[in-house]
Amino acid sequence: MRDARFSDSHFRQLSLEFWQYRRSTWGSLLLLVLVSLCSSAFLVIEGLQRGELISALVARDSFRFGRSLSLFVMILAASAASLSLSLYLRDCLGLQWRRWLTDKILGRYLSGQTFYKISNPTVIKNATIDNPDQRIAEDIKVFTQVSLTVFLIFLDSIVQLLGFIGVLWFISKSLTFFLVIYAVLGSAIATFFFGKALVGINVVQLQREADFRFGLIRVRENAESVAFYQGQSQEKKQASSRFKGVCDNFNRFIRWQLGLDFFQNGYQYLTFILPSLILAPQILSGSLEVGSIAQSQAAFDRIWLSLSLVVIQFEQISALGASVQRLGGLAIALDASEQKKASKIENNPSDSLGSKQPQPEQSYIEIIEQERLGVEHLTLILPVTQSPPIEQFLQKFCFEICR
User: Fold this and answer.
1) Is the pTM of this model over 0.70?
2) Which of 128, 169, 336, 339 gives a 20 to 30 Å CA spacing to 152?
3) Domains of the chain, with CATH numbers?
4) 10-16 contacts, C-beta under 8 A, 24 or more apart
């Protein structure tokens, strides 16, 4: 069944409501941003110091080399510590976000009969969804963790972009202009050519993987019935059909991924030689030190990574887009179920009072407690294979009931 389109309001609800109602997490978020900014700043300083270290070696200046080496080691230690702390804080904050969002959606999903209504097209039209279990278990996990990861990558990219553009602008203005045009062009190609296709394929893949897993779970939960009625061949046929859909869509995914890999790798490998080619005349003429090559290469790589973020992190971004789309569909279905329940209570106010008395025109089950069990209009069908005589079966049945 096709997914319902999510709206901007649902995306804002998923991403902002946690931060509005959990003010205690703002301290963790600010600490995470601060540590991430420090980590990015250390990378900028490390790039500058690397060039200074190489220039000291070329100049054969031992004092300059020793001073540069000591400072370089301290910068590396501080950078490693800040990066590790940033990843730890990110994972802790992502776990808090996932726990809060899972509790909220799980409470709505299991309230009343919502879990039944959103999976039944006869109850709620145009708002039913497939595999709500996967959306709650997997898509919330991807949304909360990858959202923070992408946010930090964007934040680090902005800081590194500002810092390294200053370094590269001081070394070569022409190299800076070339890099900006190169990165923007590559990001546009990745976004508009590969983006739409891969996000759609990811959505379909998640749905088919969930269908295949749900079929296997259903067999496990009904193993006795399947074995009793010799239904294993039919279940195998259905499972094979679902798995074929998984493989067919994944083949489509890896073909598109092959094209993206060709583009990403070729696009990235060109950056290994471009700074040297552009700065070679100035190095050979003596207007720049050899260490400027290392500084420009580090600055060029970081600026390219910052401006080409869509290209480099495309798999995570596409997975995040697919998860947001599926969670948006779940939110729409939950809203539709709650609106229908509210309208039903409004039309029948007695329902909201919790009245349990059956209506005169409705049929209901009358419970009468007695010592004997009575059954009317019972149709008894026994398995064809390995079934005992009917008399023996009834004697055993009566014995089990009366015992």
Assistant:
1) no
2) 169
3) 8-348 (1.20.1560.10)
4) 10/327, 10/328, 10/331, 10/332, 11/324, 11/328, 13/331, 14/101, 14/143, 14/324, 14/327, 14/328, 14/331, 15/147
